[in-house]
Amino acid sequence: MSADVFADVPCVPGSLKPDPILVADSVRRSFGGLVAVDVEHVEVQRNTITALIGPNGAGKTTFFNLLTGFDEPNVGTWTFNGVSMNGVSPYKAARRGMVRTFQLTKSLSRMTVIENMRLGATDQAGERLWTAPFKFLWRDQEAAITERAEALLERFKLDHMRDEFGGSLSGGQRKLLEMARALMVEPEMVMLDEPMAGVNPALKQSLLEHVKGLKDEGRTVLFVEHDMDMVHEIADWVVVMAEGQIIAEGPPAFVGADQAVIDAYLGAHQNTDLGVTP
Amino acid sequence: MSQTLSNGLFGAIGVVAIAYCLAAIGLNVHFGYTGLLNFGQAGFALVGGYAVAMPVMNWQWSIWATIPVVIVASSVFALLLGIPTLRLRSDYLAIVTIAAAEILRLLVSTPNLKNVTGSTDGINSFTNDIQNSIPGFLKGRTVPLWEKNISDYEMWVMMLGWFLVALFSVVVWALMRSPWGRVLRSIREDEDAARSLGKNVFAYKMTSLVLGGVIGGFGGAILVIGQRNASPGSFQTQFTFLTYAIVVLGGVGKVKGPIVGAMMFWFLITVTDSLLADWTDGSGFQLPTWIMDSSNFSFFRWILVGGGLALLVIFRPQGIFGDKKEQAFDVR
Lengths: 278, 332
Ligand SMILES: Nc1ncnc2c1ncn2[C@@H]1O[C@H](COP(=O)(O)OP(=O)(O)OP(=O)(O)O)[C@@H](O)[C@H]1O
Ligand SMILES: [Mg+2]
Hints:
The complex is a heterodimer.
Chain A: E1 20-31, E2 34-45, E3 49-53, H1 60-67, E4 75-80, E5 83-84, H2 90-95, E6 98-100, H3 113-120, H4 139-155, H5 171-184, E7 189-193, H6 201-216, E8 220-224, H7 228-234, E9 237-242, E10 245-250, H8 252-257, H9 259-266
Parallel strand pairs in A: 3-8, 3-9, 6-7, 7-8
Antiparallel strand pairs in A: 1-2, 1-4, 4-5, 9-10
Chain B: H1 2-13, H2 15-34, H3 41-59, H4 67-85, H5 90-109, H6 114-117, H7 128-132, E1 142-145, E2 148-151, H8 152-176, H9 179-189, H10 191-196, H11 201-227, H12 237-250, H13 257-279, H14 297-315, H15 324-327
Antiparallel strand pairs in B: 1-2
Bound molecules: adenosine-5'-triphosphate and magnesium ion (MG).
Adenosine-5'-triphosphate (ATP) binds near residues 34, 57 and 103 of chain A.
């Protein structure tokens, strides 16, 4: 069990990990007077599933936006695989292996499900201007991409929607499509913003297995989720955010019992001294 | 009546329709496939038109040598417009393109530039090479089109023009069925989705702006060659808006859209013009003069066309050939 890698990691905010894939330092983003994100230090261990939890408005989505280049912090530095990601545009972040999904889905309504999926594949000869007009130059690659896409659609129970427009999918199906499409990029790290919101319980279970499968493929998963059952079931490590700051870190069982976390969720004044937890 | 119809037929396939068709093919790349709000297609056409006329008049170039000039000049214009705006929200491109097109038009109209651009009169005698290149089977003949006679020069320019329409339509078709076109369509719908999947959205938008701009440039080139005159009056803002009307009429984001749209549009324009002229000329069937007379019927034509387009947008927003199913999913 990969939880072992956390054996020597102390359960304190900003704790150091043995082999971090993502390291963020004093990342701060404010909107006018409101400090949405103020992360002192956080590390995400490679090839694990890390959950990012916190009450509404804690700054989780904003933190995702910052890490993936969709928003710029006021101050702060962060590295992915040891390479600085400051000022790196979203598409470059994706190409470096950091792919995210959106809380408000961005499945493309006027494209079919399979076209949505194909769009996710990287390094397509057919996406370059000079090769695009000549179908024989990209036909084989397109076929291989389609095959991969169909396999993923099947796993996400979307294969029957293959040729429907994205706009005809239900809310939950859009979530699934977006997640499947992100996997078409074959990212090293997948960042999912509330992947299970609106997904029915039966499918949820199979998706959980699928997320676990991502780890077995060697990927790193960072996901935002409000559903604590899911967090308990698949997360190796949990990072808790409240009012922009990391207030606790630890394995799921530890975090659920942490007083600061309970306070944050219950809305108590959370500036309590975290102290040393047993 | 057959006079009216043959006028309409000529309007549908004549040089002006071809020029607008090319401009519409370019605009369709911008607006139809990529979602770029280019309100300065008249500017691209102007650049293309003057790129042909100016080197011939000022430096005695062969007109054929100006083909690369059309490509380079329209590309440079696209880069100048795109670099500062394509990273911003889409409205900025709209503002900058409409302003740039007007600035260019006023610039070439400047009396101080009379020697270079011909000012408001424009440039005339630059089409000798085209005249001399008329192939033997056409030379000296007039081609009858029903009750209308087309001169050898006009026919030759029409042939060149339709060749360009076919060429660019094939290019656009080949590009838009490819994964490259798929990226453009994803950008049209949601740039951030495309970015999150590793697509360099700025580069794609820039390429689209250049490609559509160059095609629009050739539209301007055909227009000035067909009219044997390059003058600012041909490239007023209405050029852009008529081009939009053509794109919408034919079907946004469809390869045949601009062709069908341009032909229908110019057919209707010419026929209504011809009919209204007939009905206000003082003989035969006449419209009551309190509705219109021979001095103002051409304004009424535009009112009729405008009303027709408004009805089209209301009752058939996908255009004549657009896909209703696809249109049903509102994106914004
Ligand atoms: N573009 C913006 N402009 C102004 N304020 C913003 C903006 N984006 C986020 N905020 C504010 O930043 C704070 C954090 O928002 P964020 O969306 O990151 O929360 P979250 O943790 O993802 O919450 P949820 O669980 O509800 O999705 C909120 O108070 C929000 O109002
Ligand atoms: Mg959120």
